[in-house]
């Protein structure tokens, strides 16, 4: 109930005024049945604008820190992210994330839409970074289609570190579904999982117009802030 209340009553109308969001390729999202929405990740608001513009409910994997806070703020975060369908994921290692993987698979087996960010974290500078193979593993394990999604200009609406939004027109681009059934029976092969991941990232690069960087975004998080290159705004 809270998911739809936030979408249509409490939060959605505000985002529509401030972000003036539009969606391209909505017909590529199936009206029923499971699928993984593989999105680039520019800002926290990606997880708000994408559900706002898609008719069906989307479940996301969210970092476990959102569910472990203390005090009043921590309690509110746990309630909010649970209410809007977020599934906590421990990013400390593959073994720690197994529970989240199982939860995501359960949602897909129930015919739901899963939203995932193959980069694993937000882009530090607006470029597209190397994808992690967990999404590919899930897609191969369940056999569901992967639908690439490009979020455009959400990092301008919600710059890293900002609290208040900056009114900016946001675009959501939905690509054609990717079918990886040709790899049936090859689950667990890390080379195949990497090939699938790289194919997804290539589609995201084409769809978003972002410059691709063949390193993990997380490896740059503790370094000095980088200046966004001109190519990062190619899709604006």
TrEMBL record:
<keyword id="KW-0012">Acyltransferase</keyword>
<feature type="domain" description="Phospholipid/glycerol acyltransferase">
    <location>
        <begin position="35"/>
        <end position="154"/>
    </location>
</feature>
<protein>
    <submittedName>
        <fullName>Lysophospholipid acyltransferase family protein</fullName>
    </submittedName>
</protein>
<keyword id="KW-0808">Transferase</keyword>
<dbReference type="GO" id="GO:0016746">
    <property type="term" value="F:acyltransferase activity"/>
</dbReference>
<dbReference type="Pfam" id="PF01553">
    <property type="entry name" value="Acyltransferase"/>
</dbReference>
<dbReference type="InterPro" id="IPR002123">
    <property type="entry name" value="Plipid/glycerol_acylTrfase"/>
</dbReference>
